Amino acid sequence: MAPNLVAKLSSANLALGRLDGAALTLPDPDLFVGMYVRQEAVLSSQIEGTQASLDDLLQLELWGEGGPPDVAEVVNIAKLGRRAWFDAQHRDLRSAAARGPAKRAVEPRALLA
Q: In the predicted model, is pLDDT for residue 12 greater than 50?
């Protein structure tokens, strides 16, 4: 192996070790990931022109009301992200990859039911 590749692999391995150690200090990694998923849902929907903020999303999730009409779309994106996180934790992704691509596209709203 080339020396520069060994150095890069070593650096990456060290960074992963630090990340793993930091993850152990989190009281509940799902809370951390959940907020990240929500923020990503807001940012992704804003790219498409949706007018909703993280505050709007949290208010709707907490109280079931408030915010602009677009916030419902952000809620759906966040639910889909949380579902993907759940699936990633509870599936053997290697065996899913070995099966190959899905036979048909899955309608995202079907996953939210």
A: yes
